Amino acid sequence: MNPNLEKTALLWFRNDLRTYDHNSLSQAVRHQHLIGVYFFDPRHYETDTFGFVKTGKFRARFLIETVQELRDNLQTIGIPLLVFYARPEDRMKELIETCDVQTVYLQREWTSEETTVLENVKKRTGTQTHFVEAYDQFLFHPDDLPYKDFEEIPDIFTRFRKQCEKKVRVRPCQPIPKPRLLPPISLPKTKIPSLTALGFEPFETDARSAFPFSGGENQALKRIQHYFWKSRKLSYYKHTRNGLIGKDYSAKLSPWLANGSLSPRSVYWEVKKYEQEVVKNQDTYWLIFELIWRDYFKYVSLKFGNRIFHKKGIINNNYTWDR
Fold first, then answer.
1. Helix (H, G, I), strand (E, B), or coil: what is residue 129?
2. Span 173-215, pLDDT tens digits
3. What CA–CA distance (Å, rounded) separates 213 from 211?
């Protein structure tokens, strides 16, 4: 065995809160010891300079449920998940030293706040820790795009879609790793924060809600099972997707895709399976079409960076603002 793989590795979960089709997890399990970690960053629950809280109560509860399910799923394959209510740069150095971590695996991000956090973590942990980043939030992997670099990504969606559909094959999904039976290592005891700890009062979901679902990888897969295979509403997706009342007008997969408890590749290949076994029509294609839109906006943010937040926008246009 490679001596480096005998060392302890740390898998830092961010917006990739799943075990199925997780590239960093597939790489990290080669190590003899593997620990997962997730940080509830207090900055995400504070009021910003404009008077808004970044994370509302619905999203916070959905995230807590997601992390709970992630911890349980990781436990079934022999990987402990440590959870901290803390800024990553404040706890990572101590965690790396305590657990003798040599390598940290994580999903690669590019937007400014996420990259700043990672830079601060690297500064405090020093050069002896190796960080392995991987793009894992796309339908079309960046390495497979028909462009030399991100600057060549078209400013028009249709051009991007047609080129990718013609030239890029969606990568297969990574299976959940096999259960690991390894000698236990000493770890700090942690717990998932409650809704109250994050600054919210407990609440009940309104019975009329069009989204009465819980967070978590298993819940996402249950939703696909219902929407695709049980109700077969996928066969009518394009015609009903803009309906706002009722849970089955559209797929409702966005919240799970957003925090990475579901990968776009897994949705894509499930649609393809449905097309083979049930029906292939404009409706089934349209769900893939929406996944490509999702990819495109991520690539737009990768290409233009913080310009997507500027008043003049990515095309540097002088807009007339009335409020």
1. coil
2. 999 999 986 666 788 899 999 999 999 999 999 998 999 999 9
3. 5
